Predict the structure of Peptide/nickel transport system permease protein.
Amino acid sequence: MTHSVPESVPRPAAAPRRKPGYRFNLVGIIGLSVLLFWAVIAVIAPWVIPYPVGEIVDYDALGPMTAKFWLGTDYLGRDILSRVLMGARYTVGISLASVTLACSLGVTLGMIAAVSGGWLDTLLSRFLDAMNSIPSKLFGLVVVAAVGSSLPVLVLTMAVIYVPGSFRFARALAVNINTMDFVTAARIRGERTPYLILSEILPNILGPVLADLGLRFVFTVLLLSGLSFLGLGVQPPYADWGAMVRENIGGLAFGAPAVIFPCVAIATLTISVNLLIDNLPQKIRDRSDA
């Protein structure tokens, strides 16, 4: 025998579905897809390039696009497709290492200065302000020309260039968080500076810091390409995208693909990062509403 539930008795409401923590719109998905594509190419490039990057494979210099050479050849007859794919390893790898080092150091020093205050804050701020007053390209040119161009020198030079800006950005955010009640309560109950930085300050500035890291990655890519265009970047026979433009710019009228495709690679990488950054604030708002 079955018993029916009277219609007057309210049924229990279904548990609300939890909204996903992160949401990307179409623009963000496109930016993320292009960025992941170049990241994957940077990792697998040595195994997918059709020809060695330094090998002359065509005696027709600045050759056109053909079935054998999809993107044509450069001024020495080397395969452009192989050099573009391999150049992703240097452009993405050097830029990512530089910006990660710069933001890690700058954000850490900025939070320490904000929490500690006093003479330490003043000393760090004045020193890094002085560093920030030096034009970035001029500093890079002087250091690389004096020490020599190598991968460690490029990474360290560009990291030093972007530490002051990252410090100022993180310190401005951390100073605001440091005055809030939950940080004051943590300080009153005896928590030390490392706890305040890692547990109270960093989680509340992480979103803007990630957006700043992406923006500085774009600046680093452009700075590296500029240094390489001046002959102070990755040295032959290897090349990043900026060096490929410099190598072939004299033959632009005869072999445009040798110049256009490295430029397109730089543009797609930087634009995709910008598209992803533009989507990041909406992503953070969606997470806070979840």
